[in-house]
Structure formats: C-alpha cells, structure tokens
Design goal:
27% of the residues lie in helices and 42% in strands. It is built from three helices and eleven strands. The chain has a seven-stranded mixed β-barrel. The longest helix has 20 residues. Its EC number is 3.6.1.15, 3.6.1.6. Keywords: Hydrolase, Magnesium, Metal-binding.
Length: 182
C-alpha cells in the first residue's frame, strides 16, 4: 500500500458493509502517514453524502485513522473546547489518493470534559440485520468500542493532552508553507 506524503491532500471515503459509498470528504491534508496511522486535518471541506447532498464542515478538525484498530477519531476544534466524534469502523486502507474505511454505524461522542456517550445503537442493530454482519464482525466491533472507551479514559492517542496542540500547530505550519508556494 503506497502512502501519502506529509502536506499532500487526499480524499476520505466512508463505505457501508454492503460496499455502498456512505460519505466523501473532498480534501484532507496529511500531517503524518505510516503503515499503521494516518493523521490529517481539514477545515471547511466539502462533504458529499450517499444521496448526493453536500455540506461544508464547520470547524477545523484533526482526523486520526489506524490500520489495526476498528475505529477512527475526528477531533473537532470548537470555541468551547475539543469535541471528538469517533466512528466504529474497519481499519483504513489507502489507494488511489483516497483513505477508505467501512463505517459500522456505532459512534462515540466525547465532550471537552472527556465525558462520552455511545450513539446510534439502533442504527447499528438495523444495519447488522439488513446487511447480515457476520458474528465475528459484531464481536470485533464490540471489543473495539471497549478499547476506544479505554483510550478515552486513559487519555491515550488523540485524547492525550498534547495531541491536539501539536497536530494543530503542524497543520498551521504546513498550510502556511503551501500558501507561500502558491
């Protein structure tokens, strides 16, 4: 799997278990890319839903994707603090300048005080039945919800105190470098 390079702009494609496209983020700047982790950032990027509707993201976000864990984490930088939207998903793959993953409906929302809530359990149950998620996938997803909650409680990965500041600073620096080239 070829990896993007720092400063490169990529798309993010979210799919459903049945292979249908769910959502596309038009442009995310890569801040770090290894075989296991891609960290990106975007702000006011165009998002296209599966039904063709479009919208712009409202605030700067740092995006964290892992090739071994079944979740990804979007850190939304708002005036009153950092909110995290965590998708329970397949690990990412990267090809054709796109980061791709399968969205498995369950989400964990984390608030600036690190309180959190599991969302969309009803949607998960509906899609699990409609798309016939294998039992092994169900078990993997439930285990990864527990891993994600553990990360939140332990302030690991994107939930660590210095994560947002260091990657936001990197995004600002790379954006300035690109602006000076244009």
């Amino acid at each position: 799997m070829a990896l993007p390079v720092e400063g490169e702009k990529i798309q993010i494609h979210s799919y459903k278990h049945n292979g249908n496209i769910h959502r596309v983020w038009q442009e995310t700047m890569v801040l770090k890319a290894t075989k296991n982790i891609i960290i990106g950032a975007n702000e006011k990027t165009l998002v296209t839903e599966s039904d063709g509707r479009t919208w712009l993201t409202r605030e700067p976000s740092i995006c964290y994707f892992h090739a071994e864990h079944w979740f990804n984490i979007i850190c939304m930088l708002r005036d009153d603090g950092v909110y995290y939207y965590c998708n329970i998903s397949s690990p990412f793959v990267f090809n054709n300048n796109c980061l791709k993953y399968i969205d498995y409906d369950l989400d964990v929302k984390v608030f600036p005080d690190m309180s959190h809530a599991l969302l969309d359990e009803d949607e998960y149950e509906q899609h699990r039945l409609e798309m016939n998620y294998p039992e092994v996938i169900d078990k993997i997803l439930q285990r990864n919800v527990k891993t994600l909650v553990s990360w939140i409680e332990q302030r690991r990965g994107p939930f660590a105190q210095d994560f947002i500041e260091s990657w936001t600073n990197r995004y600002i620096l790379l954006s300035e470098i690109q602006a000076n080239k244009e």
